[in-house]
Amino acid sequence: MTPPQLPSQPPSQRLGRQPLHATVVALRIGGAWRGVLIQGRSGAGKSDLALRLMQAGWRLVGDDWVDVFACEGALYAAPPATIAGRMEVRGLGVVGRPFLPSTRIALSLHLTHEPVERMPEAAQDVIDGVAVPRLVLDPRPASAPLVVAAAVNRVMRAARAHDDDAL
Question: Quick one: 58 exposed, middle or buried, by C-beta within 10 A (0-12, 13-18, 19+)?
């Protein structure tokens, strides 16, 4: 399923969209883009983790602020028009980056600098009425992008297994 086409109005005029202080990057999996909603306080490492994921083939959707909206039981994110294709890189400033106009969110990622559980129970965030798997992660270790990729792959495998069970 391809993401819905975005209306041409500015984000503030789009019905059903809510702005979130987050960064979103997406990876093409099985022919479709699936995104990670990266949330955390200012300075937590959202943009830094996004840059490392983009180095591994992920694509920017939006940095610092995104509009999220539910559509047909799934959660989507899109960049506000005023900052689409722009990313703040600490020590460098605002840079232009290729970006996607929208993506379906597969994972809600919460960044922390506190120790994280080694074997956490499955958790979800409910955003705009849609349940999205949640992961809490310290973005500072070099392995953080690999953990994100593994988490998204796990979510996608679970979704495929659920779809197969429904048949």
Answer: buried
Tens of pLDDT, residues 40-96:
999 999 999 999 999 999 999 999 999 999 999 999 999 999 999 999 998 899 999
What are the pLDDT digits (tens) for 117-146? 999 999 999 999 999 999 999 999 999 999
Alpha helices in 8-61 (DSSP H): 46-55
With CA atoms as reference, report the closest residue to 124 among 63, 69, 66, 75: 75
Per the structure block, which two tokens stand in for 130?
A: 């849609």
Of 157, 126, 127, 123, residue with least CA distance to 137 = 123
Please state whether beta strands 130-137 and 103-111 pair in parallel, antiparallel, or not at all (unpaired).
parallel
**Residue 161: HSE in the Cβ half-sphere, 13 Å Cα cutoff:** 6
Which residue has tokens 């990729």? Answer: 149
Give the contacts of 126 (CB within 8 A, at least 6 positions apart).
132
Spatial neighbors of 58 by CB under 8 A, at least 6 apart, are 25, 26, 27, 50
Q: What is the DSSP letter of 8?
A: S
pLDDT for 5 equals 44
